[in-house]
Amino acid sequence: MAAKTDLAFQKCISPRCGTTYAIDEVRVQCEACGDLLDVVYDWDRLRPPTSLMYFEEKWTRRHDPLCFSGVWRFHELLPFAPQSQIVTIGEGQTLLQSAPAVAQFVGIQSDRLFLEYEGMNPSGSFKDNGMSAAFTHARTIGASRAACASTGNTSASLAAYCSVTRLMKAVIFIGTGKISYGKLSQALDYGALTVQIAGDFDDAMARVKEASRELGIYLVNSVNPFRLEGQKTIMYRVLEGLRWQVPDWIVVPGGNLGNSSAFGKAFSELYELGLIDRIPRLAVINAAGANTLYELYDRRGLRWNQGAPNLDIVSSYYAELDQARRRASTIASAIEINRPVNLNKCLRALEACDGVVREVTDQEIMDAKAQVGAGGLGCEPASAASVAGARLLRHEGVIGANERVVCILTGHQLKDPTATVAYHTTDQDKFNEVLGSRGVQRAAYANRAVAVPNDFDEIVKAIQLYS
Ligand code: F0G
Where are the domains positioned within the chain? Predict the structure, then answer.
């Protein structure tokens, strides 16, 4: 249990339980009731800055790694560890990019759409925000091995932090054939122990929890509450990119629901601290082939309900999935998840942010991805779910044409070249193999390579014809 004098501690998210734990305890769930844990702060005694402008001053001290990091620049808003214990590999140097062409595709005013490009992180996805926080906690408690189950990006991030810092050894659980080559190559290249189990992400997640408990390995999946502290900073950087103005909408893909949970916590805390005067709305976008949140929230009416969600709705849905032997299936392999571990926290975030949930098809994801590539920095399929979701919400009239919208691009374009090349290919068999099998029927925005004989005149002709 946490002591009354603790400035930071862990706390069960269920208001009916609320059991507390000291900050140096290693837990991924409440011992009393099994619910998720939060990292909670005694803000009255910690006295964080009274204005977000305070953080701009840190840019002038970029030679200091703690000011350079886009996570630890905001240390005062995630003060669970002393500066001396902080682990950083330069994460969070990201960009909030105005994307007029993508705005047009989404159907909103050209200067109102922004893409938060998390692909610029050292391992190429948003995961590094959370990993630096989890590593910081792991360091304070002296862990020597860290494990995760992954659809590829968490594992790439864990492996990168292990190889750069040498603080821990990485143990990675992945489902067979469920991870894109870009991501698998990272885990192998960074030297992680990679355990490929016969099954999918949901199986790997169940197993890694078991193995880490049994073997005392530090778990860095987003059930680890410290991960989410790091991921809060994505929202701080969005606000920073907008000169501290609050947007109308944050649109994010939903997989294990760590980001949406972290974003809700970030905004609730900023509001409580008086650092923002309103909370943006949150839209969480599932892939239609991995749509547990959509099914539960939109179709079956599951709500946080001020901390008393009707969990019978969840267990009966999972029983149905089991009975029908239904597995998650989407081209957006990063979010190919049917049992999101942060479900309860995400429900809380949706309540705090007046949120909505939608599902988008693989066709919509791939078309949105092509538009992001053509009008922005590019992204992997899962990330494009945010843009496809924003477009859907605009068509429904839920998002207004003048509203300011931020879509989170969670992962780098090069994470999954197979999907991208298949979309743009002229080889119908390749298209069918990778995308047709997922119900993608056409590539409306394909940019096809032009085949030309090795003849200079023909080459010139082709350039003149197509440029
Ligand atoms: N986008 C990308 C690129 C991801 O890798 C993930 C999750 C998500 C979105 C979903 O985020 O869990 O916060 O809802 N990838 C995990 C992994 C599951 O293992 O890399 P979430």
Answer: 1-47, 95-123+227-419
Top-tier CATH class for 95-123+227-419: alpha beta
Closest CA to 96 of 123, 78, 120, 72: 120
How many angstroms separate the alpha carbon of residue 65 from the centre of ligand 1? 26
pLDDT at 441: 96
Q: What percent of the chain has pLDDT over 90?
A: 96
Q: What are 171's two structure tokens?
A: 């143990």
What pLDDT, on the 0 to 100 scale, is given for residue 386? 98
Nearest CA to ligand 1 atom 4: 334
Q: Using the mean position of ligand 1's atoms as its centre, give its distance from the Cα of residue 50 in Å.
A: 33
pLDDT score at 312:
97
Q: What percent of the chain has pLDDT over 70?
A: 100
For the stretch 34-56, pLDDT in tens is 999 999 999 999 999 999 999 99
Main-chain dihedrals φ then ψ at residue 224, nearest 5 degrees: -70, 115
Is 230 touching ligand 1 by the criterion CB < 6 Å?
no
The predicted pLDDT at position 2 comes to: 86
68: its two tokens: 């350079």
pLDDT at 154: 97
Residue 401: CB atoms within 10 Å: 12
Model pLDDT, residue 236: 98
Q: 395 alpha carbon to ligand 1 midpoint, in Å?
A: 26
A 10 A CB-CB count for 206 gives 15
What pLDDT was estimated at residue 467?
87
Neighbouring CB atoms inside 10 A of 452's CB total 13
Q: How far away, in angstroms, is 335 Cα from ligand 1 center?
A: 6
Is residue 123 in contact with ligand 1, taking CB distance under 6 Å? no
Distance 43 CA to ligand 1 centre (A): 30
Residue with tokens 């390579």: 449
Please give the average per-residue pLDDT across 429-451, as a whole number: 95
Q: In this structure, which residue's CA is closest to atom 10 in ligand 1?
A: 255
The reported pLDDT for the residue numbered 226 is 98
**Interatomic CA distance for residues 293 and 93, integer angstroms:** 30
Looking from the CA of residue 148, the nearest atom of ligand 1 is 19
